[in-house]
Amino acid sequence: MPVTLHTDPHFPCPQRLQLVIEHLNLPLQETFQYNILKGEQKTERLLKINPAGSVPFIEDELDAQPFFLAESRAIARYLVARYGKDSGLMPDPSNLGEYAKFEQAAAVEVAGFDPAANPLVLEEHFKPNLFERDPDLHLAQWLRKRLDPVLSNLNNTLKTQPFMAGEKLTLVDFFYVPYTHYLVEIVWPSCFEERPHLAAWWASMTKLAAYKSVYGSKE
């Protein structure tokens, strides 16, 4: 497959995309890994094709004109639409109800879960362990309070369905995985203790081969 991946596998957004690549079993043409703490992804050539200087991003040379794309969720959608149509990870737009539920679930992840989980993991894990900076404990406490009702709402959603968007595993489930991994394994291990439906969903996600490939087996 003529897709080249540029990434730093130590961080959640690249991991989000890697989970999807692993699940789809996509044979990449080439993978370049960078240390983003050293700014290795901001060379002159790379900034010309990816001005934001972020990872992950891809180069797809299937067509005559190479196609460049950044942002993990956008890339995941693109790869499924182009190379994983039969995966079931995105619903058929002609099924309006299923497609609307998928978009609703995706919106909850990006607008409800991520704005609290992302900075909380940054404060309590990445700052002290990778950036060698002290966490802002007051901010972390506020973020936990903000995230708590989001987790409860997700638990309620999962009372009546096994996955975030309904009866089937979709991209949305993978979108949740990286920050959930750091929450459950490192930052807030008790966050699912009184949320059995969320805990059951997480147990099913950690059994997937893609999860084991990216994070290792929990067994």
Q: How many structural domains can be distinguished in the coordinates?
A: 2
User: How do the strands of the widest beta sheet line up side by side?
Assistant: 2-1-3-4
Percent range for β-strand residues = 5-15%
Q: Main sheet?
A: 4 strands, mixed
Per DSSP E runs of 2 or more residues, the count of β-strands stands at: 4
Category by helix and strand content: alpha+beta
Specify the helix fraction band. Answer: 55-70%
Number of helices: 8
Question: What name does the CATH topology of the largest domain carry?
Answer: Glutathione S-transferase Yfyf (Class Pi), Chain A, domain 2
End-to-end CA span: 32 Å
Radius of gyration: 18 Å
What best-fitting shape do the alpha-carbon axes yield? Answer: globular
Order of helices and strands: EHEHEEHHHHHH
Q: Tell me the name of the CATH class of the largest domain.
A: Mainly Alpha
Q: What's the pLDDT, averaged over the residues?
A: 95
Low-confidence stretches: none
CATH architecture of the largest domain: Up-down Bundle
InterPro entries: Glutathione-S-Trfase_C-like, Glutathione-S-Trfase_C_sf, Glutathione_S-Trfase, Glutathione_S-Trfase_N, GST_C, Thioredoxin-like_sf
Domain GST C-terminal: 95-219
Pfam family, one: GST_C
Protein name: Glutathione S-transferase
